[in-house]
Amino acid sequence: MNTQDKIKLIAKAIEVLLIAKNKMYGDSALAARPVFFKGCPGDAILIRLNDKLARIENRDGELRKNDVVDLMGYLVLLCASKGWVDFEDLID
User: Fold this and answer.
1) Residue 21 belongs to what domain range?
2) How many structural domains does the chain have?
3) What is the pLDDT of residue 71?
C-alpha cells in the first residue's frame, strides 16, 4: 500500500472515530455547557491539548496510539472551532 492510500485510510478512520466520540460526548468540545470553564471552545481545546502533551511528557515521552489519535482529534476540533474547514489555500 502506498503512502497516499495510507493517508486516505487514516483520515477516514479518524473521521469515523471523531464523529462517534462527538455523538457519545454530546458535542462537548464545541457546544459545551460551561460549568467551571467559562472561556471559548477554542481555548478549552488548547487546554486539553496542553494537558495531553504534559501527560505524554510525564511518561518520558512514551507515545501511544491513543495519544496520537487524541492529539489529532483535538487539532481537528480546534480547526472546527475556528471555522477552518477548507485547506486548499495551503497547497503550494
Assistant:
1) 3-90
2) 1
3) 96
Query: Which residues make Cβ contacts (< 8 Å) with residue 9, sequence separation at least 6?
Result: 1
Is the separation of the CB atoms in 67 and 58 below 8 Å? no
Cα 52 to Cα 7, 33, 56, 68: the distances in Å are 24, 22, 6, 10
pTM (predicted TM-score): 0.87
Higher pLDDT, 28 or 74: 74
Residues 55 and 30: beta-carbon distance below 8 Å: no
Cα–Cα dist 25/34, whole Å: 14
The pLDDT score that the predictor gives to residue 66 is 94
Residue type, 92: D
